[in-house]
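DATA CLASS: polypeptide
GOAL: derive structure tokens

***
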Amino acid sequence: MSLTSDRQRILVVDDDGAIRRMILRTLRNLNVELFEAQNGEEALDKMAKVSPHLILLDIKMPGMDGYQICRQIRANPANQLAKVILLSSLNRLPERLAGYQAGADLYLVKPFEEEELKALIRAFLKLRHAEEVEQLRTNLLQLVAHESRTPLNSILGYADLLVGGNFETSQLSQIAGEISRQGKRMLQQIEKADLYCRVTSDNYPLRPYQDNLAQVVGRLTKDPQFLGLPLILEIAPELELEFDWALMVQVLGFLLENAFSHNPEGQSVTLEARRQEGRLLIQVSDQGPGVLEENRQAIFKPFYTKSLMHHHAGQGLSLALSKRIVELHGGTLEVTGCPPQGAQFIISLPIIPTPFIDLESLGSSKLFGPSNT
């Protein structure tokens, strides 16, 4: 299982339509998402849009050949874990070496047996998943360490002040309040990391209950973080729905937090919700810098925060976590809005949710608002 989607994605690149169709037909029963491209330019465009886990790449194509495409794939840090299998009818050592030098993980000679291709793909997807888990663990530790350092230093600094001096009651109250604030900030980061680990595990169980969306949002906006902020609510009153609201309220909180952190001071954020064609649509709109089109997939990747407009301290996991929770409910989370028009984060959920598993032992997070448990 991918850490950001229920199914892994494979991109098949070949200028020969018959070969592409044969490969796609062979892979249909692997429970993966399949994409295709007929040339290098189209392949790189698909890479940016769908972030495939594995690429089957023909070498001899007009325009960019497979070696050139492979080098461009490897030049992008976002593709560091992607597996590339080069396909060629040439079985000479110089061609094979050139493929590995370009960054390919495997050089497969045509013609090949269909069962061999499927076995290789299964093996490489398992390897990719193992590497992804290890990368997640490393990044998670780095993120928690990085985002705990500032509040922890503040706590220690105030503790040293208390040890070394005499203070009036009002001063002690101020210091205690700051220690409490920084401690809660650090705890929130730890809870967010813990929640991300749990919802990205296999077969994560959801706990649904019925609630009214307008009331859920009303309770959320009473969180001290949002009190007094210019939030416009346009929510249909009849939205009485069954979801794991203890999780969905986290999504709404993260999206509002993200929106206000990038909004010009004093400008409003809008949260809209309505039914449309059998689905629930929720949109959070800000008036900030927006998100460049080439970053609209990457922004939902965990820890992908460098060089992105839409990033704020403490949000290295928020959007990835939001997307994962929405996907667990059978929905989608996307972003639109190019600079400088602001960003619109759009949740689309089925009104009749996908099946839930209700386990009594499941813990709940309290990053935002009261829990149902």
Summary: The chain has three domains: 9-112, 132-199, 209-350. Residues 209-350 form a domain with the Heat Shock Protein 90 fold (CATH 3.30.565.10). Confidence is low (pLDDT under 50) at residues 1-5, 306-314, 353-365. The CA atoms of residues 102 and 178 lie 53 Å apart.
